[in-house]
Hints:
- The chain is mostly beta strands.
- It has one domain: Galactose-binding domain-like (Jelly Rolls).
- It is built from 1 helix and 8 strands; from the N terminus they run H-E-E-E-E-E-E-E-E.
- Strands 1, 3, 4, 5, 6 and 8 form a 6-stranded antiparallel sheet that branches. Strands 2-7 form a two-stranded antiparallel ribbon.
- It is globular and about 35 Å long.
- The relative contact order is 0.31.
Amino acid sequence: MGEAYVYELNHPEQQEQKRISLDRTKPLSKKGWKANSNVHKRKTLLAIDRNMSTRWNSGPQKKGVYFELDLGRLYLIRGLALKLGPKYSDYPRGYQLELSQDKIKWVTVASQEKTSLPLTAFIKGADISFNIPFEPAWARYIKITTTREDEAHHWSIYEIEVFK
Length: 164
């Protein structure tokens, strides 16, 4: 029997972030979290309701649309995963991820001008996630803002997980 191979294709911008590992075995509890956005505000809680049949979405992607989390207190975090459910093509086409301890001073910890899902995401079937790892940092607030437009695809979050 022949050998099987799996290849992962990334944009050059993804190479630097690839070196930072994301331990998905250590998610934070969602107890006490609050969510906000500048679009579809009433649906933001659907991204943290622990129900993979509900979602928040942006509508067609526009620059400047953000999704914001209040974790309720400070945590040392190192990444997050946006669970895409059956809408595997609804990930942000470009993003900036910022953290804050006080919602006044924000620090950019990750950004990509052009994104794509790694090929290995499709191996997981129903558990496709758009992962954003970053160097460990203290934060209470997380803000993800789109930096590109895409009229054909929405940005959907069925669930968001934040990792220690």
